[in-house]
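anyone seen this seq b4? input:
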Amino acid sequence: MLTQNTAWVNVERAIDRLRAAGALTAVELLARPEAEIASLIRPAGYFNVKAVRLRAACRWWLAEAATAASQDTASLRRSLLAVHGIGPETADDILLYAFERPVFVVDAYTRRLFGRFGLPQHDAAYDLLRGWVEGVLGPDVPALGQLHARIVELCKNHCRPRPRCGECPLLATCPRLGVAAGD
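predicted toks r here
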């Protein structure tokens, strides 16, 4: 939730502040006033909104932790989506990385990369794009996680809004090469 609309370096600062304050668990976060949490996560931006959302996620976790892992993926996803501040991308992040469920996380990086490679699915509705990737890779949790992680890494380092194509590992296969070279 801290990563929403912010750079990772700012998330790291917020996490460091939470750690230093002893506020990294759901119980510890809920024991503190919302204003204090907001102050601690200030580096992550939108700190007042994120404090409310973090507390909602903590309440969900404390209520659902005992049974969450045993729920089927669709039910668990619906439960996560019912939490204030958790949308499809955040729910799928939690499902893939925390619960090791076979879902693909669609984010802005995915859409950017797929668009540059001319995949018509890049602008499809979230669930359609997610389903397309899951259909291609199948229910392979490590492969889904690796694909997402590699897309994030590639887009942070090379396939940026203003691309840095020169040292991109996909340079030889990128259909955008002719356009990007002139950017």
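The mean pLDDT is 93. Residues 165 and 171 are 6 Å apart (CA to CA). kinda curious what u guys think
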